[in-house]
Q: What sequence folds into this?
């Protein structure tokens, strides 16, 4: 019997399917990166909707807002700071559920417990845009002038803003196509390392924010809304960048991160312990509602809790084990 989800219970309410049209900002610092948190979002979103997924009931408990009868969720993952090998390797370590018994004895041989990005890439549930490996490839050749397609991925080989914008829009468009025109596809857009793109190219925060709005509110030629279902952005928020910016790079980074924080509905930040390194604590995770969080529903009866009020702001400690497992607990527990 599966007794505990790999996603900790205290963290589970925050990594369910986000509100439609919402923006979730995930920040980290040097020594406390948010990669593990982004992977938890991906693991929850990629749980199969079929009845054969035995982890589904534990990843999506009843009443978490996830309608299993709804359309399939698809992922567009755009990464400027990590390549495909990183996501593929770390995805396997992100086990969705565990058992005190032998996992293979319970689930059967050949069952993939982590995020099988390779399989999801082939079946179209994941579209990966590599903005790291070849972003600054020599653009003298016609092939390098745009984006390249390699084994189902889109590889950016030109840092030009128009090329980047068009490539991601094409990936979003592709992800929303089902086997028939009647199929509905909810697309989650994950953006990793946009701050690195700003630093490497010298683009202004306004230009990148305008591009981000195009991605979130993309419309096709027939003016039918093609909005992504929700957006999750992971970025760095180290103190020199956001507290006392001096150089143009620091100033641009601050403007970008602060702007995202004002627009986001939920901000999840991880940082190292203020007191230094601890053997049994990896860091602190702080979760706060931002100005983009939906207002409480006035029509909800007093005895009920609206979705906007269900999420609590909290600050917790976390520990990342060697096998990829995560422990999250309240301070003082």
A:
């Amino acid at each position: 019997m599966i007794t505990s989800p790999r996603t900790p219970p205290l963290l589970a309410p925050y990594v369910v399917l986000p509100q439609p049209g919402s923006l979730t900002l995930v920040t980290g610092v040097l020594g406390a990166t948010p990669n593990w948190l982004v992977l938890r979002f991906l693991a929850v979103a990629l749980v199969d909707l079929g009845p054969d997924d035995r982890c589904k009931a534990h990843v999506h408990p009843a009443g978490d807002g996830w309608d299993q009868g709804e359309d399939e969720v698809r992922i567009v993952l755009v990464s400027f700071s990590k390549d495909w090998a990183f996501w593929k390797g770390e995805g396997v370590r992100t086990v969705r559920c565990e058992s005190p018994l032998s996992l293979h004895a319970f689930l059967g041989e050949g069952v993939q417990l982590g995020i099988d990005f390779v399989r999801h890439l082939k079946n179209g549930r994941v579209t990966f845009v590599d903005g790291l490996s070849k972003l600054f490839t020599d653009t003298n050749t016609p092939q390098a002038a745009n984006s390249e397609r390699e084994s189902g991925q889109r590889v950016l080989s030109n840092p030009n803003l128009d090329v980047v914008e068009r490539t991601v829009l094409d990936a979003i468009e592709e992800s929303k196509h089902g086997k028939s025109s009647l199929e509905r596809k909810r697309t989650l857009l994950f953006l990793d390392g946009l701050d690195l793109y700003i630093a490497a190219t010298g683009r202004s925060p306004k230009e990148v924010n305008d591009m981000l709005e195009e991605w979130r509110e993309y419309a096709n030629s027939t003016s039918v809304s093609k909005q992504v279902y929700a957006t999750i952005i992971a970025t760095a928020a180290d103190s020199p960048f956001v507290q006392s910016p001096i150089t143009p790079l620091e100033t641009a980074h601050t403007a970008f991160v602060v702007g995202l924080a004002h627009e986001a509905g939920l901000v999840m930040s991880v940082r190292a312990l203020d007191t230094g390194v601890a053997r049994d604590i990896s860091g602190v995770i702080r979760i706060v509602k931002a100005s983009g969080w939906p207002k409480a529903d006035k029509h909800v009866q007093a005895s009920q809790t609206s979705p906007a009020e269900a999420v609590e702001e909290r600050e917790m400690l976390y520990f990342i084990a060697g096998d990829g497992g995560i422990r999250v607990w309240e301070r003082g527990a």
Observations:
- The longest strand covers residues 72-79.
- Residues 248-263 form the longest helix (16 residues).
